[in-house]
Design goal:
By secondary structure, this protein is α+β, with helices and mostly antiparallel strands. It has one domain: Glutaredoxin. The chain is built from 3 helices and 4 strands. A 4-stranded mixed beta sheet has the order 2-1-3-4, with helices on both faces. Helix 1 packs parallel to helix 3. The longest helix has 12 residues.
């Protein structure tokens, strides 16, 4: 059963460090976190990202929904650092 949901951009074919969503997904893979990918549209407007806004209060990706239902969003590099150092605000398993 998947415990974490990674809300990310639809550009799943990008696997470069310039893509914030790919960087976080790579960190999840490296940490062995079981997660489900939830893709969101190409636009960044409030309307096209209504689900993301509902979850996190902002339109930016990536967003993590953790095992306890905690929704976590901040700058991607900060998210990766907290993931790799075990400092996320909720459980990942």
């Amino acid at each position: 059963m998947t415990k974490v949901r990674l809300h990310r951009c639809s550009y799943t074919f990008l696997h470069v460090d310039a893509d914030a969503c790919s960087r976080l997904q790579k960190a999840l893979d490296e940490q062995g976190v079981d997660y489900e990918v939830v893709k969101h549209g190409f636009g960044k407007s409030q309307r096209s990202r209504a689900e993301v806004v509902r979850l996190s209060g902002q339109k930016y990706l990536p967003v993590l929904e953790l095992a306890d239902g905690t929704v976590y969003r901040e700058e991607t590099d900060d998210m990766v650092t907290k993931l790799t150092t075990g400092q996320l605000p909720g459980p990942t398993s």
